[in-house]
Amino acid sequence: MFSLDIRSVTKLQLFLFTVYFSQARVVDNECEGVLVGNIVHEKEKLLDVDNSPYQLAIDYDTNTLFFSFTSSKEGKSFESGYLNLKTKEFHTIDDIDGGFANAVDAMSHTIYLGAGDGVYKFNLDSKKTEYLNISNHNIWQLFYKNNLYYTTYPDELVYIYKDGKIERVPELKDTRAMLIVIDNNNNIYFSNSSGLYVHDHEVKSISTIVEYNIESLTIDTVGKIYFCTDEDIYRLVDSNEVEKLASLKQIFGLAVEKDGSLIVGLYNSIIRIKPTDKQCTVNEI
């Protein structure tokens, strides 16, 4: 009677599994490109921009990236602009002065812009802005989750615009913050000059994640948190463990597309980092 050793089956399954994934991605020991994990990613330049694109926010409905940058125009310090991520068509938003912050309400497709004199709303179809007259704060960052949040400069305070009123975010009244995002469990992640922190919604306490100087803090469409320093890009995984994704030079801004591709603002350009079918193996000594 024919019999099959279970140990042979296990080895065969392992062999087939290895062959399958070897066919799916080509192992390349030269490692050319940007490595995210052990997958080779390629850099695609989307736009040459004057200087330091930051505060990146994507309107996923129109595939449009909103961002701010240091202006080279006389009498202007900062400008707001937007870039079609498919066609690479770029425009500046000229009817606000000192545009610095950007956020998108994904449900209503409302675009918010922050400047030195408060908050504006931008209509992508008419290319017009509307001053909301809700605050005259100098806006550093905007974030939208159910309501509009913003941080201020130089005092680094966090506010929420809710039910027609502006008020301090109570969870962060005793700390400073320049960048914030809120995850699917209503935990508030925030950074200041000391590092990256999280206010846990359940236990009502603040804990330290890393003591890095954070350039950008963002969240993707499924609720994963990403952040970057001026030379490294990271993602938070289970239990707020930090996973390093990639290293670049002079990073100023970060956003994540629906497919997981990274949109990165460098000193004088905006690039897309997208995966290839190549896998890189790094020999450790």
Helix/strand order = HEEEEEEEEEEEEEEEEEEEEEEEEEE
| Average of pLDDT | 89
Tally of structural domains? 1
Tell me the β content. over 45%
Count of alpha/pi helices:
1
- Contiguous runs where pLDDT drops below 50 for at least 5 residues: 1-26
Q: CATH first level: which class?
A: Mainly Beta
How can the largest sheet be summarized? Answer: 6 strands, mixed
Strand tally: 26
Helix content: under 10%
Which structural class matches the secondary elements?
A: mainly beta
Question: Termini distance?
Answer: 50 Å
Level-2 CATH architecture: 7 Propeller
**Which homologous superfamily in CATH is the superfamily?**
YVTN repeat-like/Quinoprotein amine dehydrogenase
- CATH topology grouping: Methylamine Dehydrogenase, Chain H
Gross geometry = globular
InterPro entries: WD40/YVTN_repeat-like_dom_sf
Features:
single chain; 285 residues; Methylamine Dehydrogenase, Chain H; 4-stranded antiparallel β-sheet; 1 helix; 7% helix
3D architecture notes:
InterPro entries: WD40/YVTN_repeat-like_dom_sf (IPR015943). The protein has one helix spanning about 5-25, and strands at about 25, 35, 40-50, 55-60, 65-70, 80-85, 90-95, 100-105, 110-115, 120-125, 130, 140-145, 145-150, 160, 165-170, 180, 190, 195-200, 205-210, 215-220, 225-230, 230-235, 240-245, 250-255, 260-265, 270-280. With about 280 residues, the protein is mainly beta. It has one domain (about 30-280): Methylamine Dehydrogenase, Chain H, CATH 2.130.10.10. Strands 1, 2, 3, 24, 25 and 26 form a six-stranded mixed sheet that branches. Strands 4-5-6-7 form a four-stranded antiparallel sheet, with no helix packed on it. The protein has a four-stranded antiparallel sheet with strand order 8-9-10-11, with no helix packed on it. It is globular and about 55 Å long.
